[in-house]
């Protein structure tokens, strides 16, 4: 089965840039999607197909994907960005696969 | 406005059965695949099951294959998850999620989520 690896936690100073990685074997050949989950809430899609943002998601959220690593970048981090972030791909062996999640702390 | 409302969660003993339902509104239900995703207390998201727009293709995680059955009723805009032989490790919040497309695939994302229903399995 396909596995996605994320760091358990990432910290960023308010106003700075946060980068959350998602590792997988040749993940650059897949479409990667990202979800934000604030405490006590349901997940929300923030990036789909590597780089696209759903309507209503700020331009501060950006995605990239190449080689064995996909990255969610959050520019000018705000207190409201504190959340758990999950990457997700489709794999023929496991259909939908999630990464383990990364807790983002904004200092 | 897209809305997904889960129901049917509760406390159940190990080995028991439970049926979750998800009532959808605000979109053409028969044009989207649907899925269930769960989250154990303090843990990450785990995809559980899904089915295509008309229900004739279903998908299951290995952890639930043979125990859970997903179905949908397009006349009632509902999707259900029948959970049999429940185990303590099935304890989780179960989310219903809309898939952006008629079936699974690399473009298929979970674009809308319900608020979840808690299933607690006791030993």
Measured by DSSP, the beta-strand proportion of chain B falls in over 45%
Low-confidence stretches of chain B: none
Query: What percent of the residues of chain A sit in helical stretches (DSSP H or I)?
Result: under 10%
Shape of chain B: globular
Which quaternary structure do these chains form? heterodimer
Discrete helix count of chain B: 0
Average the pLDDT over all residues of chain A and give the rounded result. Answer: 96
CA-CA gap between termini of chain A:
36 Å
**Helix share bin of chain B:** under 10%
Largest sheet of chain B: 7 strands, mixed
Give the overall silhouette of chain A.
globular
* Biggest beta sheet attributes of chain A: 6 strands, mixed
Task: Give the averaged pLDDT of chain B, no decimals.
Answer: 96
Q: Can you write the helix and strand succession of chain B as a string?
A: EEEEEEEEEEE
Unreliable residue stretches of chain A: none
Estimated radius of gyration of chain B: 13 Å
Give the largest chain-chain interface (CB within 8 Å): A-B, 26 and 24 residues
Number of strands of chain B: 11
How many helical elements of chain A? 0
**SSE pattern of chain A:** EEEEEEEEE
How big is the Rg of chain A? 13 Å
Question: Can you walk through the features of this model?
Answer:
The complex is a heterodimer of chains A (107) and B (123). The mean pLDDT of chain A is 96. Chain A has no helices and nine strands. In chain A, 0% of the residues lie in helices and 44% in strands. With 107 residues, chain A is an all-beta fold. Chain A is globular. With 123 residues, chain B is mostly beta strands. In chain B, strands 2, 4, 5, 6, 9, 10 and 11 form a seven-stranded mixed sheet that branches. A four-stranded antiparallel sheet of chain B has the order 1-3-8-7, with no helix packed on it. The model of chain B has no long low-confidence stretch (mean pLDDT 96). The interface between A and B is medium-sized, with 26 and 24 residues.
């Amino acid at each position: 089965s396909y596995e996605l690896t994320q760091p358990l936690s990432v910290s960023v100073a308010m106003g700075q840039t946060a980068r959350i990685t998602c590792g997988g074997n040749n993940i650059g050949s897949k479409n990667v999607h990202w979800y934000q989950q604030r405490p006590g809430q349901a997940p929300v899609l923030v990036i789909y197909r590597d780089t696209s943002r759903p309507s209503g998601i700020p331009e501060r959220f950006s995605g990239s994907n190449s080689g064995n690593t996909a990255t969610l970048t959050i520019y000018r981090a705000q207190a409201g960005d504190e959340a758990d972030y999950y990457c997700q791909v489709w794999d023929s062996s496991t259909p939908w696969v999630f990464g383990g999640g990364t807790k983002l702390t904004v200092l | 406005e897209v809305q997904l409302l889960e129901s049917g969660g509760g406390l159940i003993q190990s080995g028991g059965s439970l049926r979750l339902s998800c009532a959808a509104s605000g979109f053409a239900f028969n044009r989207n695949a649907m899925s269930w995703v769960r989250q154990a207390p303090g843990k990450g998201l785990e995809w559980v099951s899904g089915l295509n727009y008309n229900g004739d293709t279903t998908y299951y995680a290995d952890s639930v294959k043979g125990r859970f059955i997903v179905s949908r009723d397009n006349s009632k805009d509902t999707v259900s998850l029948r959970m049999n032989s429940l185990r303590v490790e099935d304890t989780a919040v179960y989310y219903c999620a809309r898939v952006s497309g008629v079936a699974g695939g690399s473009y298929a994302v979970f674009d809308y989520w319900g608020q979840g229903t808690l299933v607690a399995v006791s030993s």
